[in-house]
Amino acid sequence: MVSKTTRKSNLNFTYKKHESLNEQICFYCGHFGDVADHVPPLAWIQFYPDYPRMLIRACHQCNAHLGCKTLPTLISRVDYLIKRYRKKYWKILISPDWDDEEINELKGSLKTYVSISRIQHEVAHERIEFLMERKKQLLQDVNTSYD
Ligand SMILES: [Zn+2]
Questions:
Q1: Which of 14, 36, 61, 142 could form a disulfide with 55 if both were Cys (CB 3.0 to 4.6 A apart)?
Q2: Higher local confidence (pLDDT), 51 or 146
Q3: Does residue 107 contact residue 6 with C-beta atoms inside 8 Å?
Q4: Cα(127) to centroid of ligand 1, in Å?
Q5: What is the distance in A from the centroid of ligand 1 to the CA of 143?
Q6: What is the mean pLDDT of residues 103-126?
Q7: What residue segments make up the domains of the chain, in order of their start?
Q8: What is the pTM assigned to this prediction?
Q9: Residue 9 CA, ligand 1 centroid: distance in Å
Q10: Could you tell me the distance, in angstroms and rounded to a whole number, from the CA of residue 70 to the centre of ligand 1?
């Protein structure tokens, strides 16, 4: 009898390495990435026999959010992450945008809090912007493949 682990690692070979694996940045959000995301997820592969199987470079956070969700395509995964990060970062994203001068007028723990908030705001904004660009690019690729 073939163990579940052996079956999974045999299936792993049917996934094609995507070009994003040659880089160290997450295909989805642009942060440092050092894990491979299975598209469609290994756990659901039997339900998507005709879908292209790809290994995509991802960061730990995107990979953890995607987990074993039944999202079989790149565009469905990107869409999910956009919604997920918007929900996760909503408080940070609506926080006011302080400039250096304003922050320098602050003192003590408030100054520290606002400085950290500004960095979190930038990181969250960059991550979502990157995902939006990725979505745009994927949609263009789909459109050009039908030209
Ligand atoms: Zn990521």
A1: 36
A2: 51
A3: no
A4: 8
A5: 25
A6: 94
A7: 4-145
A8: 0.85
A9: 24
A10: 18
Give the tens place of pLDDT for each residue, 8-35. Answer: 666 777 899 999 999 999 999 999 999 9
Kind of pairing between the strands at 16-17 and 35-39: unpaired
**Cα 106 from Cα 49, distance rounded (Å):** 58
Q: What is the token pair recorded at 18?
A: 């995507």
Instruction: Give distance in angstroms: CA of 126 to centre of ligand 1.
Output: 11
Distance 54 CA to ligand 1 centre (A): 16
Centre of ligand 1 from the C-alpha of residue 25, in Å? 8
Model confidence over 56-71: pLDDT tens digits? 999 999 999 998 899 9
